[in-house]
Amino acid sequence: MRQFCFTLLLLWGIPCLAADVVHLTEGKHSVKATIGDEVFTVMQFSDDRKKPFFLPVTAAGGIELLKAGKPDAAERVPGRKDIICSERPQVTNQEAGLGLNDVVEISDVIGHWLKISDKECWIHRSDVAPIAATVTRLINDNPPRIKDRSSPLYYDHPHHKGIWLSVDEVNGIKFWNEDGEIRTKSVEIVTAKGNPAVLKRTTHWLGENGKPLVEEVSTWSLYANRLITADITFTAQTDVTFGDTKEGMFAIRLPNSMREMVSGGPVNGASGDSGSGELWGKLNRWIDYCGPVGNQTFGVTLMDHPQNPRPSRYHVRNYGLFAINPFGQKSYTGGNEKLPANPLELAPGESTRFRYGLFVHSGTTEPKQVEAAFQQFVSQD
Q: Domains in the chain, start-ordered, CATH in brackets?
C-alpha cells in the first residue's frame, strides 16, 4: 500500500510554486523560504540557541548540482549530501525520524522526490537544501579536533552561525561571542508569498539580570533573485552603550571551501580594491566574497545603506567570516587612520535604525550584476 501511494505521488507530484516569488512556510521554531521548489534559506529561532540565525542559505540550481554529484563522496565534498530544512519534512516514511538540520545522503532523484536509502524513505525536494549549493557553513556541535586551519574539516568560532545579527560590548556584554543571549519574542510573517516575501522578528538582548537591554525589531525581505535585506531598529530599554568593537554586526559565515585563505577568492569591493586584507575595516558600498563549493563558484555580497545613521566598515576575513559593522571605528582604523573610538549611546526609549543587504549569486564578481542588486536594495522604502 505504501509503495502504491508513493507511486501516485511520483505521478501526480505536489504543485510547484512559482520560481519568480518567494514562499514562506512557518514552523514552531523556524520559517522556511522557498523559490519554486528550491529552499533559499531557513530562519531558525529555537530557545536552545543563544541567538536567531538563517541557516542554510543557498544559491540557485542546487537540485541539478545534487543530481550531478557522486553518492558517498568524501566528507569534505558536497556530493549528494543535503540538509533537512523543515521541522516536519514531507517524507514517505514518518518513522524515518528526520528533522531540521539533519544531514542526509541522497541515492536517487525521481521528479520532485529524493531517495534516502538508509532511512528507507523519499523526501520532497522543497524540504532539503543541497550542500553543493549552500554558501553557509553548517553547524557542528561536536567538531573534530583539527589544528590545521587549512583543513577542509577545520571548525573554529562556533558562534558563527549562518547569517546572524549581534554585537559585542553592549553594556559590556559580548553578544557576538554568545556570552549574552538574544531571545526571540515573536516572528510575524508579513507577506507569505511575494517578491519580496517579508517577515518581522522581535528579539530582546538580555542583560545579566535577564531583563532586556535592547529590543531589536528587524524586518527581513527575501527576493527571488536571492537578495536579502534587513531593516533593523534597536530601541534601548535602559541606558545602553554599543561599544567600539570590531566584533559585529550583520554577518555570514561562509563554508570552508569558500575561504579566501584556501581558494584565493576573489574578494572585491565597489571601490575597486580587492583582497580581504586590503578591504578589512574599510568603508564601501558593497563587498563581494567568492569561492568554490564543490565544482561550482558562488559569491555573497554585503551592502551598506547610504542612509544609515553612521557608515559601516567590513569585518571580512580570509577564513570565511564576512560581516559589516557600524560600531568599530577605532577598532578597525587604530593602526592607520587613528580615528577616535565612537561608541553609540542610547537613553531609555531612544531608537536607532540600520539597513543592510546580502546577495547570493553564482560565479565570480560581475560588478554590473552586484551593482544592480545594490540599487534594488537601496530603492526599498
A: 16-133 (no CATH), 163-378 (2.70.98)
Enter the pTM of the model: 0.95
Q: Omega of the bond prior to 56 within 30 degrees of 0, cis?
A: yes
Asked if residue 108 lies in contact with residue 54, where contact means CB atoms within 8 angstroms, the answer is: no
Q: Which positions ≥6 away from 87 have C-beta within 8 Å? A: 27, 28, 29, 30, 99, 100
37: left (phi over 0), alpha (psi -120 to 50) or beta: alpha
- pLDDT tens digit sequence for 160-204: 999 999 999 999 999 999 999 999 999 999 999 999 999 999 999
Cβ burial 303-337 (10 Å sphere, 16+ → b, else e)? bbbeebeeebbbbbbbbbbbbbbbbbbbbbbbeee
d(CA 236, CA 214): 5
Q: Which of 305, 256, 301 is nearest to 279 (CA)?
A: 301
